[in-house]
Request: fold
Amino acid sequence: MSAIAFTGGRGNEGLSALLSAFGMLAGTSVLAECTFTYSRLLRLMDPQNVRKRPVPSIPRFNFDADRCSHCFKCLDICKHNAIMRYGDLIHYAEHRCTACGSCIRWCPLSVLQFEYDDDVLLSYAESRYGPLLYTDSIVDALHQPAMTSVILEQARQMMNVRKIHQLHIRLPRGQGEAAAIAASSADAVVIVTAPYPYALADLKSLVLFSRKCGHLPLVLINKVHPSNIILTDVLNTYCQGEGIPVAGKIPYDPLFPEAEQLGLSVIEYDSATNCTSAVKEAWINISQRIANIT
Ligand code: SF4
Ligand code: SF4
Reply:
């Protein structure tokens, strides 16, 4: 089994169109959409047979400070530094909590509890290229790490049950705790960039983030055009200097928006153009890299 995490720069740089094409090329994979908005990718994937279930494991943490004996066992138990000590008191950092429940099981006095919030619905759907998991409920920033963990756990269960070997994770936006949880759980990170004015700064920051999550990422340069060839070279030179593999350069092509308007991936729309050949070649490079890692 392998898991690939995909992320993009400021405008996400055509990530939805590329992910839908990669989904087609992969055959069958599970898609964990962790951006917490009903994205263009989901429109392209055209979710069918959607079943929504409340997610009972998005918790609000309830800590009864009066009953705490200050034994500080929970500090050692929490692997995510979500519980900290301030003098004789403990402090709970909700944004770091993944809702694993370990501290609750270990607290000898049962003073740590979750209160469950059933407002968040997880959607399980079918698409032309495999199952999708996502939520279109509003998930606030504090609950995103927990929600990310839930989506990924459910996605992996789905892979086991259906014997599907590849998981595509669309990382939550930004580089916060939720994105770090998702990236750290993957076998590889693919950064999609494009030659726009702030692209190098965004790329450097995403490379740093990927490295912190334990990956040397792959980079895909999208929307390459004769008019932005200098910026493309800047991105390429940076990658070469850092030893970062460039999985491909995808030419800018109006085929992408045309396909999207019809709700199709570019591979379904027209599979024999320069741009679709570049997408296919990039996918081969990504697949080979994953095969070498896993
Ligand atoms: S394990 Fe329970 S009793 Fe001990 S410090 Fe943590 S919350 Fe308090
Ligand atoms: S539920 Fe897990 S991540 Fe959250 S505070 Fe407890 S041990 Fe830490």
Observations:
- The domain at 2-55+125-293 is CATH 3.40.50.300 (Rossmann fold).
- The mean pLDDT is 88.
- The pocket of iron/sulfur cluster (ligand 1) is lined by residues 68-74, 90, 107, 109, 111-112 (CB under 6 Å).
- The first strand starts at residue 2 and ends at 8.
